[in-house]
Fold this protein.
Amino acid sequence: MAGISDEQFRKILENNVLANHWLIQMAAPGMLTRNDGAIIIISSIGGLKGSPVIGAYNVSKAADLQLARNLAVEWGKHNVRVNCIAPGLIRTDFARALWENPQTLKAVNARTPLGRIGEVDEIAGAAVYLASKAGSFMTGQAIVIDGGATIAG
């Protein structure tokens, strides 16, 4: 982070925090009027720890976690729930550079208790839970889905 320009940092914050804020502000009025809704923000395990490589990204993902907590407090009285999903490394196009690099993939798998990276459908199940009646008493929380990476150090 010491070498990142304000412009680079601003772009990361705009893409990962401000864009979520804008989308939520567009969707929330109907939920607040109906007194029912579920908002799910995709954060990252990066929001839970520091990094010598992707620090600005991690700061933005930590802000997403706090965005969910604040909105959950503000909108709970309207039965609008706001939660986060915090994935680890998932086989997505966004993370392709990481999982296609054999050395990176081997290192991640070695320090992850389940010994592999995640698949997209393993994140989708958590989103279904948070959006459904089954998740109706959960708000302001983050579900970490990372194969155990954050517990292993």
